[in-house]
Amino acid sequence: MLTQRETKPYVTPYVGGIVLGIVLFAAFFITGNGLGASGGMNRLLVVVEDWIAPWHVDRVPYLIDMAGGNRNPLDSWVVYVTLGTILGGFFSGWRHGRLKVEIDKGPRISNRNRLLMAFLGGTLMGYGARLARGCTSGQALSGGAVLSVGSWAFMLAVFAGGYALAYFVRKAWI
After folding, report:
1. d(CA 74, CA 50)
2. Model-level pTM?
3. Distances (CA, A) of 41 to 13, 15, 44, 144
4. Which end of the chain has fewer CB atoms surrounding its CB within 10 Å, N or C?
5. 3-class DSSP state for residue 61?
6. Per-residue pLDDT at 5 exceeds 90
7. How far is the CA of 23 from the CAs of 31, 69, 146, in angstroms?
8. Measured between alpha carbons, how far is 22 from 16 in angstroms, rounded to an integer?
9. 3-class SS at 5?
């Protein structure tokens, strides 16, 4: 079956970092762009929005560039990067025996609350990524690789925000 493979150990963070650097370099070399995920997810949502309310998409300047008129929001490199990331993640999980359905949580939080917190966190992250014009991978990896000051400031803010918020949600995990 899909989930009955022997679990293999993780690679060391050093090897993972080197492989990520090679992938990032290849992305710049082949596509002329870095890595990113929120832009692809955003374009998938714009497809749905364009299907439900095309008049809205045609009037909002932010959306016009992606799907206004006869433009196809899926006609972008970041959509293929996002789909490749999802498919690659599933393949890697299957290949290394980690493909399973589970809710990773601490002992003091229910499954329902854990899923609610994950949804809330994902929504805030997605909204913030659109405000910042890039998510963690786009800002930190791609922007950091080209020494963008804004990207380095973003990463420092992410770590500072994470540490500040951890105090309030730590009891859910320990």
Report:
1. 11
2. 0.74
3. 27, 28, 5, 21
4. N
5. helix
6. no
7. 12, 35, 15
8. 10
9. coil
Per-state percent for the chain, helix, strand, coil, to nearest 5: 70, 0, 30
Written as six digits, the tokens of 124 are 């805030």
**Please, are residues 83 and 63 in contact by the beta-carbon 8 Å criterion?**
no
The two three-digit tokens of residue 23, written as one number: 């992938």
Predicted confidence band of residue 1 (pLDDT cuts 50, 70, 90): low
**Model confidence over 13-55: pLDDT tens digits?**
999 999 999 999 998 898 888 888 888 888 999 999 999 999 9
Cα 160 to Cα 85, 118, 131, 145, distances in angstroms: 27, 20, 18, 21
Please state, in angstroms and rounded to a whole number, the distance separating the CA atoms of residues 76 and 83. 12
Per-residue pLDDT tens digits for 71-123: 999 999 889 888 998 999 999 999 989 888 999 888 888 999 999 999 998 99
Find all residues with CB under 8 Å of 49, minimum gap 6, and list them. 56, 57, 63, 67
